[in-house]
Amino acid sequence: MVLVGREGSGKSASGNTILGRKAFESRAGSSRVTQACERAESASEAAGRGAVVVVDTPSPLDSAQECLALCGPGPRVFLVSVRVGRFTPAERAEVERLARVFGRGFYEQALVLFTHGDGLQDGETVEEEIRANVQLGRLVERCGGRYHVFDNKKPEDRQQVAQLLDAVRSMEGRSRGGMAECELRRRLQAARDEQDAGEIRLILLGLTGMGKSASANTILGCNVFQSKAGASTITQQCRKKTRLVLGRKLTVIDTPGLFDPNSDEKEVKTEIGKSVCYSTPGPHVFLLVLTVGRYTQENKKTVKEISNLFGSVATKYTMVLFTRIDDLEGQTLENFIVQDSVFTSLVEQFGNRFHGFNNRDRSNDTQVEQFLEKVEVLMRSNSGHFYTNEMYEVAGKAVQQKMEEILTERMAQIQAEEEKLKKA
């Protein structure tokens, strides 16, 4: 789903209502909050209707490329956000401009989403407003008569979301995905070409409590991932966010922490493995997140588990990211690593690629800019190539083969012991 419309119309709030969580920054007012196209996915089935991907867009949206790049294989519906009681000439002009940006078939794939449904007085209906406003009526007509009403002050009302999803699904078969097929294919290919050329995809990995989510927020420059201090994991499933940061388009995937006593370890590893799919066509960089301080046995086990999960080939795509460098109290991160042989060996294992974050100082753009420079150096060393799903599958087969070898060896030992007992 792609949310479009004029600023202040309630796009971001509607995205949050659909997803059932605060995925997009939203506040009342007519000033622009969304600065770039952002993508978020439902953590589970939305209103019992399956997983949902929502793309929020800024206004004005000058190019379809970035938006389409975030919703491959293509958008199912454009939700044209219109505030109840406010369809001005400026709103109409914005919709007409969007139709030019996305090209032929935009209206065939669009549904008018009325927001601020709570603004309707007792007895009033949106149908009356559509009939009373000629231009609004014409917009709904061009969208095939499709419209829905949201009250974003009641995000707990999942019935309104279920009804919207049913309306979207009823569009299938009428438009074959909406835009004229050749037009959509051309625009999507252009979007993918632009995405591959300019997007940087990052996956954060590590032990529970190392600061993965806080680091993801630091990288993106806003609070998009839930984060708080503690030994229990907050992130239960992979989370993905795309934002424009310092002129670079970043996609960041946060993952559950390993070795959380309150989580099933097998399920956690399965979920972490999904991060490769979340970063399709694949991550450019894995960030192994550690805090400055003592290197524990759990840290050591984490590095081993990550290697088992993604294979030894992932090493050349990995950078160590240290958090809480403010605890060094004036000591440089470089000196800290040099003075600890264990950390020195670890960093060397990953090609001496490392960086440090003070996640309490989110206003410090320098630490993020230096981090991105190191990421780009790593990407150049890999000739722009990224870790792929095929590499992940190979790693999985290698682990399975190793487990089978261990099991075969153990069975042989047991059989030998049984034979020995028979002879005794």
TrEMBL record:
Signal peptide: none annotated. InterPro entries: G_AIG1 (IPR006703), GIMA/IAN/Toc (IPR045058), P-loop_NTPase (IPR027417). It holds the Pfam family AIG1. GO terms for molecular function: GTP binding; GTPase activity. Residues 1-189, 197-396 form the AIG1-type G domain. Keywords: GTP-binding, Nucleotide-binding. The keyword Oxidoreductase does not apply. Belongs to the TRAFAC class TrmE-Era-EngA-EngB-Septin-like GTPase superfamily. AIG1/Toc34/Toc159-like paraseptin GTPase family. IAN subfamily. This is AIG1-type G domain-containing protein.
